[in-house]
UniProtKB/TrEMBL annotation:
<dbReference type="InterPro" id="IPR003593">
    <property type="entry name" value="AAA+_ATPase"/>
</dbReference>
<dbReference type="InterPro" id="IPR003439">
    <property type="entry name" value="ABC_transporter-like_ATP-bd"/>
</dbReference>
<dbReference type="GO" id="GO:0043190">
    <property type="term" value="C:ATP-binding cassette (ABC) transporter complex"/>
</dbReference>
<dbReference type="InterPro" id="IPR015856">
    <property type="entry name" value="ABC_transpr_CbiO/EcfA_su"/>
</dbReference>
<keyword id="KW-1278">Translocase</keyword>
<keyword id="KW-0813">Transport</keyword>
<feature type="domain" description="ABC transporter">
    <location>
        <begin position="6"/>
        <end position="242"/>
    </location>
</feature>
<keyword id="KW-0547">Nucleotide-binding</keyword>
<comment type="similarity">
    <text>Belongs to the ABC transporter superfamily.</text>
</comment>
<dbReference type="GO" id="GO:0042626">
    <property type="term" value="F:ATPase-coupled transmembrane transporter activity"/>
</dbReference>
<dbReference type="InterPro" id="IPR050095">
    <property type="entry name" value="ECF_ABC_transporter_ATP-bd"/>
</dbReference>
<dbReference type="InterPro" id="IPR027417">
    <property type="entry name" value="P-loop_NTPase"/>
</dbReference>
<protein>
    <submittedName>
        <fullName>ABC transporter ATP-binding protein</fullName>
    </submittedName>
</protein>
<keyword id="KW-0472">Membrane</keyword>
<keyword id="KW-1003">Cell membrane</keyword>
<keyword id="KW-0067">ATP-binding</keyword>
<dbReference type="GO" id="GO:0005524">
    <property type="term" value="F:ATP binding"/>
</dbReference>
Length: 284
């Protein structure tokens, strides 16, 4: 049975002084152990929803639950939630607070009052994992935007959250760092962390995710497996989200090539390669 780690139930939220409701009854659960992606056009409420995910924002109506238990908006309970749910902000400038890279990574660990030698060991290890070793003593304001993004993720991962919420983590990363990040997210996931990533990159979404959620107008409009999302291509197109390149390549293949390749649209290049290889073998 699928266990929902975090559940949003009929959330409503308007920013004070804002231009009207942002979340308008959004409901969905994040299944434990899955690599999940949240899609939705600019301004549909993804970042606002994430801020509800660890209690930074309290909904004006509806509730957020962790393993079926509703959030309690009191200091101690919220501190526990920020340990379970790691949120990496869309803008790293909102996340980084210390003056150097090492200090920033150790900040959350110091707040937990861990022994100095434990903190040192954890910081050392995470600097290596995120390729930040050479920047350990660099002032944060000297970092590039991509480096700041990696640091923001390192500062959250060092706290070992059960659920990781990533708000557009690949924006401003070059191809090499994007690949590194996705590989690192796979390691994080294999080590038992559930991940929900908001992204506008449809190729990354369909190549990486096991579960896709789509928001529009402050509501959830779809949740399901990537294959199922691709089968609802009118929905993706009507929301102007576009299609992953792999779906367009599939569409462009002549029927004679597709003949004998069972199943629906592949969601990754590897899957397409396997199908083509299988077809070549069976046609010999
Ligand atoms: N602090 C704020 N005060 C007032 N309105 C806000 C604030 N933050 C966001 N909004 C508004 O809330 C709406 C949803 O914003 P949000 O950032 O959640 O969308 P998003 O789906 O994350 O968009 P994007 O894909 O551009 O990151 C937008 O109309 C935005 O203008
Ligand atoms: Mg956003």
């Amino acid at each position: 049975m699928t266990v929902m780690l975090l559940e949003f139930d009929d959330l409503h939220y308007s920013y004070p002084g804002g231009r009207g409701p942002v979340l308008q009854g959004v409901s969905f659960g994040i299944p434990e152990g899955k690599k999940c992606v949240l899609l939705g056009r600019n301004g549909c409420g993804k970042s606002t929803l994430f801020l509800h995910g660890n209690g930074i924002i309290q909904p004006q109506k509806g509730q957020v639950s962790w393993r079926g238990v509703p959030f309690v908006y009191k200091r101690q309970a919220l501190q526990e939630m920020t340990q379970r749910v790691g949120l990496v902000f869309q803008d790293p400038e909102h996340q980084l607070i210390a003056s150097t890279v090492s200090e920033d990574i150790s900040y959350g660990l110091c707040n937990r009052k861990l022994p100095p030698e434990v903190i040192r060991a954890k910081v050392e290890s995470i600097l290596n994992v995120f390729g930040l070793r050479e920047l350990a003593d660099a002032p944060i304001h000297h970092l590039s935007l991509g480096q700041k993004r990696r640091l923001a993720l390192a500062g959250v991962m060092v706290l070992e959250p059960e659920l990781l919420l990533l708000d557009e983590p690949t924006a401003y990363l070059d191809r090499y760092q994007t690949k590194n990040l996705l590989r690192e997210l796979d390691h994080i996931h294999q080590s038992g962390t559930t991940v929900l990533m908001a992204t506008h990159d449809m190729d990354i979404a369909f190549e990486w995710a096991e579960w896709i959620c789509v928001m529009d107008g402050g509501q959830l409009v779809f949740a399901g497996e990537p294959q199922e999302a691709l089968e609802k291509r009118e929905m993706l197109e009507s929301l102007h989200l576009g299609l992953p390149l792999i779906a367009e390549v599939w569409d462009a293949l002549p029927d004679t090539v597709k003949q004998g390749m069972e199943g629906s649209i592949p969601t990754s290049v590897d899957e397409l390669k396997q199908r083509l290889a299988g077809r070549l073998v069976s046609s010999r």
